[in-house]
Write a sequence for this structure.
């Protein structure tokens, strides 16, 4: 049998159906000619900005291709009653005559989720009181009519292929005036999936390690070579073979091997973090073995903190961590990345990312309601015009990502309250998309603790939400590999917040009725992960795979099992609750299906139409697999040749500050915050943008998630990847410190802060050719994790949740046909969250009232290494900022106490860019002038003005207070670095920075109207909205 | 005091149901949050209520036009019941996606008692994007609108991608003449925005942010009164608090403008 094994085509061609019996109908809809077409104008503007292509006008036409047997009357009814707005639109079943020089038609490829197509079916069925037959459907597409005299075929091809469509998920056709037939229009293009394939289970030969390795490569399983002997040993075991013979199996089936591959992937199993690191400091020769950084740097510290902090409810095992909000509620939080898919298809990857992370809280405990989201984007320079050609230009990638998270968050009805954006050339190799989700759940549900859940023998396995298609197959294993042009595109999908929002509302209703015994989401690995993991509680399950609802026929069994089709949850319920459960599911228009039951057999048992196709011990994955090993060689920054640059002090500080404010990583990103709904749910207390002009970034966001309570949740995040160029230990400690300080600045209590770590690291496995600096990157990872442990223990921050995403590298084509490996900076995003006892005492960062005193808390050191200032000159430097957690914590508690006493008018941390940039922020926030003396800034043997102005030393704040409170404020900070450096002046005044100790001609260093500084800060992205 | 029962629609991608219910409760109403399908199948009877609120959100994902499919579903399954509800002198409020639904149902503008004709559109913002911001609104003192009694100006957040109020000139003129234009986007100093972005955030004709029917009992608006349910929702609250504190005053100014708008509705039902 083994010798006759043949590989089936794992990505069968999705074929377009020829129109047969039913005539499809094509309804074209467009705005009245005299109405402004905002979408078309957006296309016109982007074509000009992205490519310098001048188009005179773009008009958009929405196309519905109705592949269903409808009468003329029915067609007329849906045209006028549903799809055409009588005030603004015109429509026709014949091609509309809209003026053009070129037409671009863009539609989805077969199998890509067409959300508006699905809602069109729903609306037609409802209005006409009919049900679509199985092979009937509606498909949406767009026709763009471009006007412009000089438009070349090349221009139009560029606009089509690089702006309007992404060839991974869409296809397009271009028509010139000559080849346009006004009767036939675009023709009928029906992206229906017809798989000419009968599902079958294949047996996988395991006669040798090499055979299995070959199959792994061919099937794109990404099995680790070290795992192969363990897998073979299991299936060759005598007892296993005997048991398998009883159910008609011998060698492993494809579904079993796919299941093991998913579960053993780095994405699901975190093999890197559980690896064995041989760490060596090449300067000192000191060696150390770090066994399992997850265990030593994350789990142990968090468990020891949980002992001391009764508010930590549930950590380290569920989809998200939980902390106590009050007696009646727990909050839950987790963070994810969705990097690989977003690099392939920015919009689809990002919307799938945000909608996907929102399922984690839904699948935490017995289910949480979503209340807040956050984002972090790390991309190449927006205006990059060098020789490297990434799959998507950073500008296009960023636009797509921003829009994906916008639609995913806004349509989920969840406020997106905080976010960050970092530009760095390293992210050309792989851009990063961080998404964070916060939820809330009642502490008890029908008297039972909400954070606990389990499956029991006899419970039904329910799949709820969307249907299963080929989408997302091998997404998990692709995320565990380095991105290249060969990466299969099948794992790109488009998240559907609408379907998920319905499911969310349904789940909350059945949760409150006590019907949910267990719930988890279908994310990476699909059913294979969710059912596999939930079955470990009862210790077994039997799944009837033919019951899983499919989007289209023809999927192989293994594809159904591992498909990552989105918007699905797996639940366990008691059989006696089924009827009520399904009734409520129907009310919410959510599909729920029983696909099997939980058992205590110890086996994962899958059948398809009665025939066993998988029979595997559940504990196989928990035992016997070898630990991954890494060599980690640390070379100190000095040894790597880093040094402090020789720069003499500048003279023109006004121009310098103005230019730094316009740098891409400092300047305003208002356009992103404004397109994200940050106030839905009515909970907003501190918004992402604050101040008189409502346009300066707040330190953190605060919401009031329970509307009849005065308690709040403060949330912030930090990213400081450039410090990794010097030492990832300090990158990590400074990132944590910034995220903590951000919460302190709005009024949080240090003792209530929880954290979420999201690691994104380049490949750390040494390879002399492919990854010559792998050992150094591994050492950076070890050092980063040690910093995480040290700082979290010192500050007392339990890690409520965390994830790692390795392999943030890419191979980019260069000018001459060569390729370059580009690795991103070692990056950690740290998120912080804290309960606020009384939101009425929260403060914002903007200066409030003329005459208020300006204080600096914390010391400024000579720490320009990795700073924005050095980067401005093209240097890295050596003196990276350091965190002194013991001293800082004392200061943070003192500030907390001052805010609690309501004697602080504003507080703002000093972050990237240093003192000068953040004094500007405070002044801009209040639209008030400010006069400060640098000689008064608490500093540690710093004698240069540029160092004081731009050093990025951690642990510092700018605070303004009512002069009336001077004494009580200073009393709190006795013995701590705290100094009054100046005063807030008049409305729309100047920022005046002087140095009374300056020996030069003028003591005034900077004197610029705050409005001018704001104009400089807003300039780079001012045209975006 | 008479019990005022308010119905808040939910489901199918709507997402402001919780805070709208909360705002109505703060305004003194007894509130039921019901799934659209529960209303359609009769398990929640419309007759039990005096105020019906179409809330914000993305019903049916806003595919095929914001509020369009919600209107189709309600018209197909409940059309006459909703008309009876209006005829009985009750109140209907549509916020954001709810306003979009009301114009697609034809409940607005409701000229001469015609509650079926679509003559107004809320279409894509001129800025080409979804936008979340607070706006200054000028209230028409001569409008019959029940919900805005006693207001001259108010500040509320807007959060939409399709909020541009559009209709032909005749309809606009008629709305103005009938005093059916209830609120208009204004500059921070209260003067008309005159389509100036971002004060008029979407390019609405005549800065129109909300209209009512000729009776004043049906009101649709793009801004979100329910998202101003607590004084800390207002973007200036920390500055206002500091100023009031310096003047020796207490910070929390009582019911917010958003809640007072709902109270007007509750009071109307109590007094009728």
């Amino acid at each position: 049998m083994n010798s006759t094994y043949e590989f089936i085509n794992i990505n069968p061609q999705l074929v377009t159906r020829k129109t047969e019996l039913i005539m499809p109908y094509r309804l074209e809809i467009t705005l009245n000619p005299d109405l402004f077409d905002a979408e078309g104008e957006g296309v016109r503007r982007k074509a000009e900005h992205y490519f310098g292509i001048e188009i005179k006008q773009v008009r958009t036409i929405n196309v519905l291709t109705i592949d269903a047997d409808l009468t003329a009357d029915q067609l007329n009814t849906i045209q006028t009653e549903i799809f055409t707005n009588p005030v603004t639109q015109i429509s026709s079943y014949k091609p509309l005559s809209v003026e053009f020089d070129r037409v671009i038609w863009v539609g989805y490829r077969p199998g890509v989720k067409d959300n508006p197509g699905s809602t069109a079916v729903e609306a037609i069925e409802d209005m006409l009181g009919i049900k679509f037959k199985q092979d009937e459907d509606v498909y949406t597409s767009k026709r763009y009519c471009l006007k412009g005299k000089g438009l070349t075929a090349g221009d139009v091809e560029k606009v089509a292929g690089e702006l309007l469509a992404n060839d991974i998920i869409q296809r397009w056709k271009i028509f010139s005036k000559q080849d346009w037939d006004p009767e036939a229009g675009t023709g009928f293009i029906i992206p229906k999936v017809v798989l000419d394939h009968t599902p079958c289970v294949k047996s996988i030969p395991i006669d040798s390690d090499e055979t299995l390795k070959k199959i792994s490569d061919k099937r794109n399983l990404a099995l680790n070579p070290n795992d192969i002997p363990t897998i073979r040993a299991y299936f060759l075991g005598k007892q296993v073979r005997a048991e398998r013979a009883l159910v008609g199996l011998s060698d492993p089936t494809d579904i079993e091997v796919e299941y093991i591959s998913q579960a053993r992937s780095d994405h699901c199993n975190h093999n890197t973090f559980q690896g064995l690191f041989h760490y060596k400091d090449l300067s000192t020769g000191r060696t150390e073995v770090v066994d399992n950084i997850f265990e030593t740097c994350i789990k142990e510290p968090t468990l020891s903190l949980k002992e001391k902090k009764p508010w930590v409810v549930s950590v380290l095992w569920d989809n998200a961590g939980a902390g106590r909000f009050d007696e009646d509620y727990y909050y839950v939080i987790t963070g994810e990345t969705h990097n690989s898919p977003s690099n392939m298809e920015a919009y689809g990857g990002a919307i799938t990312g945000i909608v996907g992370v929102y399922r984690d809280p839904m699948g935490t405990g017995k289910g949480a309601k979503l209340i807040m989201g956050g984002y972090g984007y790390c991309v190449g320079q927006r205006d990059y015009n060098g020789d490297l050609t990434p799959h998507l230009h950073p500008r296009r990638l960023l636009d797509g990502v921003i829009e994906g998270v916008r639609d995913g968050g806004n349509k989920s009805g969840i406020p997106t309250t905080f976010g960050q954006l970092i530009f760095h050339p390293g992210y050309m190799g792989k851009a990063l998309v961080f998404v964070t989700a916060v939820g809330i759940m009642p502490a008890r549900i029908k008297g039972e603790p909400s954070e606990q859940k389990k499956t029991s023998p006899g419970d039904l396995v329910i799949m709820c939400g969307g249907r299963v298609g080929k989408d997302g197959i091998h997404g998990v294993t692709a995320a565990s590999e380095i991105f290249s042009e060969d990466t299969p595109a099948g794992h790109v999908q488009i998240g559907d917040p609408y379907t998920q929002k319905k499911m969310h509302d349904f789940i909350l209703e059945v949760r409150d009725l006590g019907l949910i015994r267990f719930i988890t989401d279908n994310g990476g690995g699909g059913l294979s992960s969710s059912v596999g993991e939930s079955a470990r509680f009862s210790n077994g399950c039997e799944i009837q795979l033919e019951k899983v609802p499919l989007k289209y026929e023809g999927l192989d069994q293994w594809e159904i099992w591992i498909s990552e089709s989105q918007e699905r949850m797996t639940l366990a319920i008691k059989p006696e609750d089924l009827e009520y459960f399904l009734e409520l599911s129907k009310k919410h228009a959510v599909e729920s299906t029983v696909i099997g039951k939980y058992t205590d057999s110890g086996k994962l048992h899958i059948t398809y139409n009665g025939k066993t196709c998988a029979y595997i011990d559940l504990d196989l994955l928990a035992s016997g697999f070898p630990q991954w090993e890494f060599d980690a060689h640390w070379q100190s920054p000095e040894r790597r040749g880093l040094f402090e640059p020789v720069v003499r002090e500048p003279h023109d500080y006004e121009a310098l500050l103005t230019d730094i404010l316009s740098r891409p990583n400092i300047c305003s990103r208002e356009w992103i915050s404004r397109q994200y709904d940050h106030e839905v749910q009515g909970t907003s207390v501190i918004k992402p943008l604050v101040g008189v002009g409502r346009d300066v970034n707040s330190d953190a966001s605060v919401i009031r998630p329970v509307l009849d309570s005065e308690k709040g949740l403060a949330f912030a995040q930090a990213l400081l990847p450039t410090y990794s160029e010097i030492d990832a230990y300090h990158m990590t400690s400074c990132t944590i410190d910034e995220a903590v300080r951000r919460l302190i600045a709005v009024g949080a209590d240090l003792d209530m802060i929880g954290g979420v770590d999201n690691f994104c690291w380049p490949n750390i496995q040494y390879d002399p050719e492919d990854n010559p600096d792998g050992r150094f990157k591994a050492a950076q990872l070890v050092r980063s994790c040690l910093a995480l442990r040290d700082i979290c223990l010192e500050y007392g921050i339990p890690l409520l949740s965390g994830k790692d995403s390795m392999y943030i590298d890419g191979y980019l084509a260069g000018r001459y046909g060569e390729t370059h490996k580009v690795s991103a900076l070692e990056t950690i995003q740290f998120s912080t969250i804290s309960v606020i006892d009384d939101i009425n005492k929260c403060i914002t960062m903007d200066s409030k009232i003329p005459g208020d005193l300006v204080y600096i808390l914390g010391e400024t050191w000579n720490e320009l290494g990795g700073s924005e200032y050095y980067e401005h000159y093209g240097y890295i430097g050596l003196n990276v900022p350091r965190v002194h957690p013991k001293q800082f914590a004392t200061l943070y508690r003192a500030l907390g106490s001052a805010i609690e006493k309501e004697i602080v008018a504003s507080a703002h941390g000093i972050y990237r860019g240093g003192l000068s940039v953040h004094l500007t922020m405070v002044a801009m926030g209040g639209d008030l002038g400010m006069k400060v003396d640098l000689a008064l800034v608490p500093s540690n043997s710093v004698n240069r003005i540029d160092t004081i102005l731009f050093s990025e030393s951690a642990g510092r704040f700018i605070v303004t207070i009512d002069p009336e409170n001077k004494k009580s404020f200073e009393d709190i900070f006795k013995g701590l670095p705290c100094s009054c450096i100046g005063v807030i002046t008049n409305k729309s005044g100047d920022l005046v920075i002087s140095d009374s100790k300056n020996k030069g001609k003028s003591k005034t260093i900077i004197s610029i109207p705050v409005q001018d500084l704001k104009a400089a800060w807003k300039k780079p992205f001012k045209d975006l909205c | 005091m008479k019990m005022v029962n308010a119905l808040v629609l939910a489901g199918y991608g709507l997402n402001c149901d919780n805070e709208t219910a909360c705002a109505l409760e703060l305004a003194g109403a007894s509130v039921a949050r019901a799934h659209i399908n529960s209303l359609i199948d009769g398990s929640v009877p419309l007759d039990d209520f005096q105020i019906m609120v179409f809330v914000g959100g993305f019903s049916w994902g806003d595919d095929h036009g914001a509020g369009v499919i919600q209107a189709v579903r309600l018209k197909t399954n409940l059309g006459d019941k909703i008309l009876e509800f209006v005829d009985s002198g009750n109140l209907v409020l549509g916020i954001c996606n709810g306003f979009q639904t009301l114009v697609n149902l034809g409940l607005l503008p409701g000229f001469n008692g015609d509650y079926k004709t679509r003559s107004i559109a809320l279409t894509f913002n001129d800025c080409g994007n979804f936008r979340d911001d607070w706006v200054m609104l000028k209230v028409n003192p001569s409008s019959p609108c029940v919900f805005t009694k006693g207001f001259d100006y108010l500040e509320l957040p807007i959060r939409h991608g399709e909020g541009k109020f559009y209709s032909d000139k005749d309809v606009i003129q008629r709305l103005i003449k009938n005093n059916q234009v209830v609120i208009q986007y204004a500059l921070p100093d209260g003067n008309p925005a005159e389509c100036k972005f971002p004060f008029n955030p979407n390019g609405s004709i005549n800065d129109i942010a909300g209209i009512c029917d000729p009776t004043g009992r049906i009101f649709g608006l793009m801004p979100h009164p329910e998202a101003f349910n607590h004084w800390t929702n207002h973007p200036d609250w920390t500055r206002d608090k500091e100023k009031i504190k310096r003047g020796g005053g207490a910070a929390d100014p009582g019911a917010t403008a958003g809640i007072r708008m709902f109270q007007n509705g509750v009071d109307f039902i109590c007094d009728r």
Summary: Chain B touches chain A through 72 residues (CB under 8 Å). The domain at 5-271 of chain B is CATH 3.40.50.880 (Rossmann fold). Helices of chain B lie at 17-26, 36-40, 68-87, 97-105, 169-177, 237-246, 257-271.
